[in-house]
Amino acid sequence: MKELIIMSDKIKGTLVILTLNEIKGLESVFPKIPRNRIAEVFAVDGGSTDGTLEYYKKKSVRVMRQHSKGRGEAFRIAMRYAKYDNVIFFSPDGNENPDDIIRLFSLLDKNYDMVIASRFMKGAKSDEDNQIIKLRKFGNKMFTLFANILFHGRLTDSINGFRGIKRSAFKAINPNAKGFGIEFQVSIRAMKQKLKITEIATKEHERIGGKSTASTFKTGTYFIQILFDEYFKK
Predict the structure, then answer these.
(1) Domain residues for 79?
(2) Residue pLDDT, tens place only, 193-225
(3) Domain-embedded: residue 1
(4) pTM value?
C-alpha cells in the first residue's frame, strides 16, 4: 500500500507587519504569526529606536523603512513592495489576534476585495479597559454608522486597521489619507466603488507595551473631514 503524501503550498499572499517602537508587543506576538504558511512576510517600520529593528534582523525579516510619518504612508509603501495581490496588514501591539491572519487570507482567496477583522460584530470583542477606549469604541461605531448611511454600506467596523485587501483594489481606490484616517477612507472608497467586502469577528486583546499614538480628538476631527470630503467628492 503506497503512502499518501499531502503537499501543502504556502498561501500566495503578503503579510505586512506595521511597527513603530513595538518591541514588547513584537517579542510576545511575533512567535504566534504563521510565517511558515505565508509566501511573503515583511515589515514597514516608521523609525523604531527601541530594539524593534534589531529584533527583525535577528528573525531575518525584511524591513522597508518609512521616512515620511503616518500610517497612511505605511500602507502605500507596503503596497508598492508587496509581491502578491492578497495583502494583509498586521500590527503586533497585542490588540490584533494573529490567529485571524489565515482566516483573512482565505476570504481574499474567495474573491473578496477587502476583508476587515471587526471588533463589533456578533461574536467579536474589543479591548475596553478604560474610559478613553470606551469613548473610542463609541466613536468608531458612530463613524461606521454614518459611513454606512452615506455610502450604502453594511459594515460593523470601518476603522480597524487589521484587514486584508487586494493590491489591485487598493490601487483602484487610490487612498491619499494621512495617519489613522487611511483605514476609514479605504472603507468608504471601497463602498463607493461597490467592491466586494466582508468582515470576520475578531477578539481584540489588551495592548502590550507602548501607547497608541492616535489622538482621540484629532483623529475624530480628521474622520469628520474625510466623511465630508468623500461625500461631496465627485
Answers:
(1) 11-232
(2) 999 999 999 999 988 965 565 567 888 999 999
(3) no
(4) 0.91
